[in-house]
Amino acid sequence: MNILSILLSANTIGKDVTLPLPLPEWLLIVVLILMFLVHLLFINLMVGGTILSFIYEILGKKNKDYITLSEEIGKTITVNKSLAVVMGVAPLLAINTLYTKFFYTANSLTGLVWILVVPLVIISFLLIYLHKYTFKVLETRLRLHLTILGGALAIFLFIPFIFLTNINLMLFPDKWAVVRGFWDALLTPAVFTRYFHFVNASLAITGLFLVGYIGRKKYLFEDKFNTISRKELQRQFYKIAFYANLAQFIIGPINLLVLPSIGMKADTLFTIIGGAIIAIIPTYYLWKEITASTENVGRYFVRIVVFFSITVLFMGTGRHLYRANAVRPYQVEMKKNTDKYLSELKVAQQESKAKADKEAKSGISGKALFESKCVMCHAPDRALVGPSVKEIVSIYKGNKEGMKNWINAPSKKRANMSQMPAFNGQFKDNEMEALVKSILEDTEK
Amino acid sequence: MDFPIFHLSLLGDRFLFVMIAILHTIVNHGFAIGLVPIISIMEFKGFQNRNPEWDELAYKMMKVVFIITTTVGAATGVGIWFSASLVNPNSIASLIRVFFSAWLFEWVIFVSEVALVMFYFLTWKKWTLGLSKEKHFATGYFLSIFSWCTMAIIVAILGFMMDPGDWEQKRTFWYGFLNPIYFPQLAFRTFLALLLGGSVALFLIHAFTQRGTDIRAKAVKFVSLWVLVVAPLALISGWWYWYCIPDLMKSHLSVALGTIQFQNWYKLIIQILVSGVILAVILALAQLFKPKFKYAIVFYAILVVWLSASLGVFERAREFVRKPYIIKNYMYANGYKVEDYPLLLKDGILKHADFVSTKEITPDNKVEAGKNVFMLACAQCHTVNGLNSIRTNFNRMYGVNKPWNREAMHQYIRSMHNARTFMPPFPGNDKEIDALVTYFKVTQYSIDPKINVHGFNELSITKEQNKLLIDNMNRKDSLQKSIERKSTTH
After folding, report:
1. pLDDT digits 0-9 by tens, A73-104
2. Quick one: B9 exposed, middle or buried, by C-beta within 10 A (0-12, 13-18, 19+)?
């Protein structure tokens, strides 16, 4: 661990929220890990689905079946993207609560680009619908139809950078003082490797998902496709999953190497390597699927899904452990800062209470009231925001009641000055009496 | 607790939040809550009267709901979280801890709502016969109920921010939830949503049907009757709600909230809402007594925009009502907690801010320190030259071409909350007010000096620039004063 960087940033980490956590910490962590994986699953299906739908529509120039396939995949994107959004809320709540300081700071440091997620999501989702509902209308204008989907795809491929930059930046408080906005933060260690890891995972998971999707008994494959058989297509999807998965075995270790060592403890390492070892099993079965004879394709589907799910659980947990390790020293520092602040606060609160008690005992002073409520607009002998005290006295001399009425409910009188706010209810009767008396009498002297 | 500052110098931070929130409210109220019940009744009518035209029209309308709610609606809903974390991280960090279970529960209902929207729309053409059609109606009714439930929970949170009731003492979830203005606000939003939904429905019916067709006449008649029923209810519940608010303010604030600004909002919301409801009722009566009038679709477009605007003004006024607090009696609109004030007034806010370039104020960093104070204590609501700018306010107070009076500004900032009761008290110490005033005075004559809000380890304004800015200010001040003196002696 880099002691120097922690010492440097001890000052920047500051204090924590003083309200207690709403749920036990372990429960929030479980919500964070599990619900984030669910969210990510649908995000993967959304991004992977869009990539494949785009590629198959291009292939559709030669074979109409691929246009149909592009449309079929398109139908799953619109559902998956909605689930991706709603499933994202729970982990967002959990990370906001568990890592408030870290997450909000990263958000703020990437400010404008972070908020850009909202309009970008709206535009890309609308494009996805436009694409989905114009397969017939734009049948003869394939290029235009592809451009619509291409627009959505470009946005889908950009948004992960924003999220990855944020969740990466939150891990490294020593970088907070040196990054200058989003583009700078994008270059913090591991953003790009994590990005490729994500895109690859999207392809692998979507490939596997589509094997199951078209493999369902209810799915009337033969009514839709003329030249390809179900099993052939399944094998194609298996191939996508297999090669994307193989690439993960290369990107994964690179990813581990480029991540700063601060979060890389034994627990992180064992969990992630454990997950990787388990991943060898489904990779083997994927190989068997793509080399099997056509009628035998699909025999190992359940096994592959189960083992991959276990791997994903390991990876998700490892990811959390890395984060927990990386921020722990800062959390300790933050706790110290918070405690110090609270003890200082306690002293200040007692002092302020003692002062208030003393003032309450000393009775009502018209002069003090004037200084706290009137002086910012009324100077002794010149017009400020309102007329001078001298002028006020000249108007209300001998007319205490008139002055009281005015203070309670003023109206717009002078064209060149703004209207005075009403003080109705702010003064008790004896306070008002003291105030008016002080204005009229002290000034005369 | 504090965070690096995010600031939009032209539009103001609040604008970002309000824009996203209002867009979300319009989609949620106008489509999810207001329109879905109408659609599911229309679908049922088609089944009952064996008229496929009702079904077809309802389907087309549902497609619009489906697309808008799952794009603009969903993204702006999450966008509220995103923008809150930028605009007022202090407040959202506290709110999330108090309301975690409410939001988690709300999320469960939200998931069901989205699932039901997709289910309802995507099974429409599949579940067409007998029992499955009945199942389909049921989905529609469930969807209407769930959409309303998400609002019922969110309203509790909004109401809580305006008035936490007994939460301050008890600090438990239910005390926060069932705050005093919960039911009036819920009733008002419900009927306004149903009215807005009716207006959107009438617009869509005109867009999707041909002039003179039987289905258009029937559908318009049905929704017009709907509007006539809910319009008076929207007015009555609106009156109930607005009747509760000032009362509440009186009982919970030591000062009267009858400020000029608030009264202006108050008048505007009443005018715009009442005129919107009247327009809706007139259109509905016109449809019933003299149907098929020309350009009806244009009138309905105006009505939808008008009612959406009234919803927008209502949200803006609601935001204003809770001032000077963001969580009443707990946290001020500037993000500082009431209980933290004694320490901050003593030490100043800069000392306890973790992400500023100036922890101590010196003559050499005064302008930057002043700007930092502005960012911490004022920028949540104000800009220097943009929306709700301090320039406009000080010009109004001290005159446009006169040098702003240092001492008066100092005194004003120290005690503004006494006269302008919607302003929080200034949280820092006198030295900070001094720096703040210097910064303001500098901006009266020079362009707002840029500081890098991310560079919290280093100064953006050098010692030399600082001196230049202050000298320039002093020179202009004395120049203006001499002009003034001349003009008074002449």
Report:
1. 999 999 999 999 999 999 999 999 999 999 99
2. middle
8 Å CB contact of B93 and A96: yes
Angle at which helices A142-169 and A25-59 cross, to 10°: 160
CA distances to A32, A170, B51 from A268, rounded to whole Å, are: 17, 18, 63
Residues 411-440 (B) with a CB less than 8 A from some CB of A: 411-412, 414-416, 418-421
Domain ranges of chain B: 13-332, 348-489
CB contact under 8 A, B411 and A129: no
With left for phi above 0 and alpha for psi between -120 and 50, is residue A190 left, alpha or beta? left
Q: With contact defined as beta carbons under 8 Å apart, do A172 and A260 qualify? A: yes
Class of residue B363 by CB neighbours under 10 A (exposed 0-12, middle 13-18, buried 19+)? exposed
Structure-token pair, residue B362: 């010196």
Closest CA to A189 of A102, A96, A117, A255: A255
Separation in Å, CA of A203 to nearest CA in chain B: 24
CA dihedral A29→A34→A37→A38, nearest 10 degrees, is -140
- What is d(CA B95, CA A19) in angstroms, rounded to the nearest whole number? 10
Q: What b/e readout covers A267-280, taking b as 16+ CB neighbours within 10 angstroms?
A: ebeebbebbbebbe
Question: What is the spatial distance between Cα B203 and Cα B298, in angstroms, rounded to a whole number?
Answer: 8
Q: For B457-482, write each residue's pLDDT tens digit.
A: 678 888 899 999 999 989 988 887 78
Residue pair A347/B392 in contact by the 8 Å Cβ criterion: no
The predicted model scores a pTM of 0.88
Residues 49-88 of B with CB under 8 A from A: 67, 70-72, 74-76, 78-79, 81-83, 85-86
pLDDT digits (tens, 9 = 90+) for A298-346: 899 999 999 999 999 999 999 999 999 999 999 999 999 999 999 999 9
Query: What local confidence, expressed as pLDDT, does residue A379 receive?
Result: 81
Structure tokens at A361: 């005992």
Task: Give the span between the Cα atoms of A135 and B282, in whole angstroms.
Answer: 42
Q: What is the ipTM of this complex?
A: 0.88
C-alpha torsion B239→B240→B243→B246, nearest 10: -120
Q: How far is B1 from chain A (nearest CA, A)?
A: 5
Measured distance CA(A411)–CA(A27) in Å, rounded? 58
> 3-class DSSP state for residue B337?
strand
Q: CA B234, B238, B240: angle at the middle one, nearest 5?
A: 125
Question: Dihedral sign, CA of A281, A287, A289, A292?
Answer: negative
pLDDT band at B9 (very low <50, low <70, confident <90, very high): confident
Delimiting residues of CATH 1.10.760.10 domain(s) in chain A: 366-444
Between A12, A88, A376, which is nearest B408 by CB? A376
Q: How far apart are CA A74 and CA A56, in angstroms?
A: 11
Q: Which helix (H) or strand (E) holds B326?
A: strand B325-327
Q: What is the Cα gyration radius of chain A?
A: 33
For domain A366-444, say whether CATH 1.10.760.10 is its number. yes
Task: Provide CB contacts within 8 A for B41, sequence distance 6+.
Answer: B222
